[in-house]
Amino acid sequence: MPDRFTRETTSHAAQDSAEADNGPRLSSSELRHLAINNGYKTWQPSIQSTGLRSSELTHRTLGQGPSSRIAEQYLLASRMVRGDVRVQISTRPYFNDDGLRTVSLIGQEDAHPDDVVPLPSPQAIDTTLGSAVAGRRSRRSFASEEMSLQQLTDIIGHSIAETGRARVELSDGGQVQFPLYAAANGGGLRPIDAYVLPLRVEGLAPVVHRYDKRRHALIRTPNAGDAARIVDTCISPPDQDHLSRASAVFILAGRPWRSMRKYGARGLRFLFVEAGHVAASMGLAASALELGAVECGSLCDDEVHDLLGIDGLFETYIHSVIVGRRTS
Ligand SMILES: Cc1cc2nc3c(=O)[nH]c(=O)nc-3n(C[C@H](O)[C@H](O)[C@H](O)COP(=O)(O)O)c2cc1C
Question: Is the pTM of this model over 0.90?
Answer without folding.
Answer: no
